[in-house]
Amino acid sequence: MFYCTLRDLVLYLHKDENGFRRNQIGGDNLHNAIRIHHALATKATDYTKKQYVFRLQTADQAEYLFQTSDSKELQSWIDTINFVCASFSAPPLEAAVGSQKKFQRPLLPCSHTKLNLREQLSDHEERVMRLESMLEEHRRCPPEKGAKSQVVQNYKEKEVYLNYELKRYRTYTYILRTKLSQYLEMGAAMSATMGAGACPPGSLAEVDEGLQPMAAAQQPPGLPTTDLEQPKSSPTSAVNRKCPE
């Protein structure tokens, strides 16, 4: 059992509730953390041993399962993690260029993006269109019959990658559109309350100036973390919340 706090792009795992309450970031927590840049949180519908479980897939292709207390908390964690990832993950670097025919995944930087929310959304939308085009082109050129096993394997790996990235960026696009729409409604309501000409804090005017909203404040309710599945790699990541592992 762990208690989790999400801070920026790192999910910290605390050994007990006291560590969570004191917001301790250090010691063992530095080794029990999961970096969530370019990560994706989804409902673990294929996991049937426990209820209200979500899957966290990270940039290093590790997977983690977390159990929440109810369906509302489950959705809250998924939305919060995806919003933080969509808002702060820097654009991926171009894939390495070389003479090898083996498929190479682009590098995913762990640094924060320099784009504001509007620019970030636009970048995600462009990547969705680019990935759709790449996937369509990829499927038009399958390996010939009798092709070497390595060629077939590379083809399959690239298709899996493109499908996953398309799903991830579609999720990012959807969550950012939703949040920006909410900010717009909040800004309009606050402007009406404060009077014309006032620029309410946290409004889209701030976003246009390049300011990021306080994603860490969009925290899901605390949840205990149950160790459902041994992670494929040692954890490293962050948001302020209690969670069972």
Task: Give your account of this protein's structure.
The chain has 245 residues and is of the alpha+beta class. Helix content is 40%, strand content 12%. It is built from five helices and seven strands, in the order ββαββββααααβ. A hairpin with a 2-residue loop joins β1 and β2. α2 packs across α4 and α3 (117-140) runs antiparallel to α4 (149-194). The radius of gyration is 20 Å and the shape is globular. It starts with a strand and ends in a 20-residue tail after the last strand. Its main location: membrane. This is PH domain-containing protein. Residues 204-245 are annotated as: Disordered. Residues 227-239 have a biased composition (Polar residues).
CATH superfamily: Pleckstrin-homology domain (PH domain)/Phosphotyrosine-binding domain (PTB)
The CATH architecture can be named as Roll
Number of domains: 1
Number of helices: 5
C-alpha geometry: globular
Q: Strand content of the residues, in percent?
A: 5-15%
Q: Give the structural class.
A: alpha+beta
- Mean pLDDT across residues: 78
What is the CATH C-level name? Mainly Beta
Order of helices and strands: EEHEEEEHHHHE
Helix content: 40-55%
Amino- and carboxy-terminal Cα gap: 5 Å
Strand order of the largest sheet: 3-2-1-7
CATH topology: PH-domain like
